[in-house]
Every structure is written in C-alpha cells, then in structure tokens.
C-alpha cells in the first residue's frame, strides 16, 4: 500500500486491512518518496487524470504555469514524483487487484472474494 500516514483515507484503509488481518507493506510517500513504477502502473490502469489529485490543497497551491504544464502522463508523473501529496491515495499494488482510493464497500467485497 502506498500513501501518506496521516491521510484520512489511508488511515481508514489501513484500519480495515489490519482488522481483517490482511498482510501488507506500507510505503509512506513522505518518508520513502514516490515509486515511479507504481505510478506508471496506476496511470496505465486508471489514467493519469485519476491518479493526479487535483482536488487537494497541494494542487490549489501550485502556480498556474505548473498546472498548465501537466498535459500528459509523463508530465503528471514527473510532478507527482516531486509533490507526493498530489498522488491519489491509497494505492494498492502487488495483489490480485490494483486499487486507487478508498471505498470501504468495494474493498469489503474484494476481500470477501479473497482477491486482495
């Protein structure tokens, strides 16, 4: 699981996984930086527009020139590598499912099927 330790969505996701006794490794973007391969995989699966979080404070604080420079997957990943708070989270990789964002109902269904 990739995310930021103090993010509300990440905390909810980790709590659910811990309560469900699901083993996972946590990669904290703030301590460990972003993983370019994981970002590429997420962008290929979900589209870079979904992986790049434009709804948060970090995006709103960027200058207009920086925002305008994000026009494709490569430029989005480059910016997310610099500003890890721009990555939608949590991101789950390595299991049977690739998941982006936290949806308790969906995650519950996936865990019931043993696909996480």
TrEMBL record:
Question: Record's Gene3D superfamilies?
Answer: Glutaredoxin (3.40.30.10)
Q: What is this protein called?
A: Transcriptional regulator, Spx/MgsR family
What would be one Pfam family of this protein? Answer: ArsC
Family, according to the entry, reads as follows: Belongs to the ArsC family.
Lineage, please? Bacteria, Pseudomonadati, Pseudomonadota, Alphaproteobacteria, Hyphomicrobiales
Q: Which PANTHER family match?
A: ARSENATE REDUCTASE (PTHR30041), PROTEIN YFFB (PTHR30041:SF8)
Which species? Answer: Pseudovibrio denitrificans
Give the highest taxon in the source lineage. Bacteria
